[in-house]
UniProtKB/TrEMBL annotation:
CC cofactor: Zn(2+)
Transmembrane segments: none
Organism phylogeny: Eukaryota, Metazoa, Chordata, Craniata, Vertebrata
Name of the protein in its database record: Peptidase M3A/M3B catalytic domain-containing protein
Organism of provenance: Danionella cerebrum
Family label: Belongs to the peptidase M3 family.
PANTHER family named among the record's database cross-references: NEUROLYSIN (METALLOPEPTIDASE M3 FAMILY), PROTEASE M3 THIMET OLIGOPEPTIDASE-RELATED
Subcellular location: Cytoplasm
One Pfam family linked to the record: Peptidase_M3
Length: 686
């Protein structure tokens, strides 16, 4: 791949030493993972023991806060070679060892979080010396004490032990939930006649059985194109049932147990619900504010959603008549992606078959990386002969283009394989913070995705929504890499959960702008530029299905809130109720979408609303600054890098927003991009 300045460097012979600060090893055996896990636990426990033994009358920053900070930095930098392989290693034994390490370390996390002796010394430090601390140090100390109270360290020993036991169960069940999904390998077999409507490029990427049938998995590159393009309703029905039945029995039991445990824990800590417990640390603060936000948005979108649903039904009626199929007068879950895709073709004349030809993965990657480099004042250099976990993975170093200083590294792992994490995500692997010697540690992150694999005769071509996903997740990577904080706890994406999506969502806008789209697209055969007519139709289609797509996000957000404001619940029934009431589409009988809703066991429990909440702010940032001053304006980009990305979690999200916008944020841009003309300028709600 040719990047800006043609930069490719060698991992072992570079004068700038770009690889020296990345000591992450991806070739550990299962036994080495187990051994390193125990050694890490011993080392960190020893550091906390040291703090716990300090004479409480002699506490100072150096013997308490700094020791904890150094231990946290060491732990964060050492842990991910142990727990990250479960998501990406091609070896099942390594994935299993990594999963077990994650469970062991998660148990240890609970033990560390319940160190009352350390908590008491930090409390003494606050009373003695907090006014003398740097602002970020004051914030760090305050955070540690708040987390201590949220873990019940102010409660009786008996309650603390119960909290510890429940917390360990929650950690282990959450890991099991996601491991089940990662190891899911369902395959459906279809004849060519059952796949009518799918492009030849899609069929070329499928394996075949000896009798000529196609093997279709439930991985994203197989599932979503089929659901959008296959003309055969029965094929779509079978796929939809299989997709929303993934790990149904085992994960439904796990999720419903998690809900019970979370509710019990919240009550022990004095909260009315798990949702309110989680929301205490967010911008929204409580479930009442979340409910108000979602209800108001639902009201604004309801009429649009009804109109769109009626239009989809008319498309289905016409489609059934054209194909000689019975029309049942209803929209089913397996109809939605197909007819929503038809809206783009009929109303906006977007030719998806033609469009995909202009987004070969290598061209998109080159364009994306160059845009980020120009915008944020960075230089990316591919590391040659890099140490990685799979031959398809690439490693890049990130330098400040002005000073030449290396500021971080990132991996790109973009194609599906057996046992790999099935979604798209950014994983922080090493925090960017100050080490014990006072020198800055280099942040390292990985973007993991599941874009279609190239074959010997066919390149990897991306759907436009996959290009959007690429920009979104790489926005998280930049958040990890560009942050410059003192403490590991504030590095990168360690911000409020309902702010964490703001930087990545904001950067999705670049895939809807002609100037940037031209930089990331070329025809895979002859390198020709994408025609303006096709670009204009694509950009106009941004508002296609906006009501239904956002109503679905409200369904997921409402379901999450409902599940986590009750003590026990039938998860399938709750999702089905919200889907019918809000979206007007029944859940398919026998399925349970929540059993594969990984966010509910991946840190977004009680907080899935964050995607919609964050989008309000991300649109305000884009339209107020970048759209007005230039989407590729390096002056604005570098200010954004300095004010938002470099700050990490060292200041409140709202303060960053006000500083960058120059005012209180508002909702106008959010509704504008949704094609809704009404605006609400109340600065007190997102």
């Amino acid at each position: 791949m040719t990047l800006q300045n043609g930069s490719i460097i060698c991992a072992h012979s570079c004068s700038t030493g770009v690889d020296k600060a990345n000591n992450l090893r991806w070739d550990l055996t299962p036994e080495e993972i187990r051994h390193r896990t125990e050694k890490l636990i011993q080392r960190i426990k020893q550091a906390y023991d040291t703090v716990g033994l300090v004479d409480i009358g002699k506490v100072c920053v150096e013997n308490t806060l700094q020791v904890v900070a150094d231990a946290k930095a060491d732990y964060a930098a050492s842990r991910h070679v142990l727990d990250f392989p479960q998501y990406v290693s091609p070896c099942k034994e390594v994935r299993q060892a990594s999963t077990e390490a994650d469970k062991r370390l998660s148990d240890f996390d609970v033990e560390v979080s319940m160190r009352e002796d350390v908590f008491q010394r930090l409390l003494a430090l606050q009373e003695k010396q907090s006014s003398d601390l740097l602002p970020e140090s004051q914030r760090f100390l305050g955070r540690l004490l708040k987390l201590g109270k949220r873990n019940g360290l102010h409660l009786s020993k008996e309650i603390q032990e119960e909290i510890k036991s429940i917390s360990k169960q929650i950690s282990e069940l959450s890991i099991d939930f996601n491991q089940n999904l990662n190891e899911e390998v369902t395959v459906l077999l279809f004849s060519k006649e059952e796949l009518v409507g799918l492009a030849q490029s899609y069929l070329n990427g499928l394996e075949k059985t000896e009798d000529g049938r196609y093997k279709v998995t439930l991985a994203y590159p197989h599932y979503f194109p089929l659901m959008k393009r296959c003309h055969i309703p029965e094929t779509r029905r079978k796929m939809e049932i299989a997709f929303h039945s993934r790990c149904k029995d085992v994960n439904t039991a796990i999720l419903e147990k998690l809900i019970e445990l979370r509710a019990r824990l919240a009550k022990l800590l004095g909260f009315s619900s798990h949702a309110n417990y989680m929301l205490e640390m967010t911008m929204a603060e409580n479930s009442e504010n979340v409910t108000k936000f979602l209800d108001e948005l639902h009201t604004r979108l309801r009429r649009v959603g009804e109109q769109e649903r009626c239009y989809l039904l008319s498309l289905k009626h016409a489609d059934c008549a054209r194909r000689g199929l019975d029309f049942d007068g209803q929209l089913h879950a397996w109809d939605m992606p197909y007819y929503m895709n038809q809206v783009e073709r009929v109303k906006f004349a977007v030719d998806k078959d033609k469009l995909i030809e202009y987004f070969p993965l290598e061209v998109v990657t080159e364009g994306l990386l160059n845009i980020y480099q120009d915008l944020f004042g960075l230089t990316f250099q591919q590391v040659k002969n890099a140490h990685v976990w799979h031959k398809s993975v690439k490693l890049y170093s990130v330098l400040d283009s002005g000073t030449g200083e290396q500021i971080g590294q990132f991996y790109l792992d973009l194609h599906p394989r057996e046992g790999k994490y099935g979604h798209a995500a950014c994983f922080g692997l090493q925090p960017g913070c100050l080490g014990p010697d006072g020198n800055r540690r280099m942040p390292v992150a990985a973007m993991v995705a599941n874009f279609t694999k190239p074959t010997s005769s066919w390149p990897s071509l991306l759907q436009h929504h996959e290009v959007e996903t690429f920009f979104h997740e790489f926005g998280h990577v930049m958040h990890e890499i560009c942050s410059r904080t003192r403490y590991a706890d504030f590095s990168g994406t360690q911000v409020e959960t309902d702010f964490v999506e703001v930087p990545s969502q904001m950067l999705e806008n670049w895939v809807w702008e002609k100037e940037s789209l031209k930089r990331m697209s070329r025809h895979y055969k002859d390198g020709s530029r994408i025609p303006d007519t096709l670009l204009n139709k694509l950009i106009a289609s941004r508002v296609a299905n906006t009501g239904l797509m956002n109503l679905r996000q409200i369904v997921l957000s409402k379901a999450d809130q409902t599940l986590h404001t009750k003590d026990r619940v039938d998860t399938a029934a709750e999702f089905a109720r919200h889907s019918q009431d809000i979206l007007g589409i029944p859940a398919t009988p026998g399925t349970n979408m929540t059993a594969s809703f990984s966010h509910l066991a991946g840190g977004y429990d009680g907080q899935y609303y964050s995607y919609l909440w964050s989008e309000v702010y991300s649109m305000d940032i884009f339209f107020t600054r970048f759209k007005k001053e230039g989407i590729l304006n390096p002056k604005v980009g570098r200010e954004y890098r300095r004010v938002v990305l470099e700050a990490g979690g060292s200041m409140d999200g709202m303060e960053m927003l006000k500083k960058f916008l120059g005012r209180e944020p508002c909702q106008d841009a959010f509704f504008l991009c949704k094609g809704l003309t009404e605006t609400n300028t109340d600065p007190n709600s997102p």
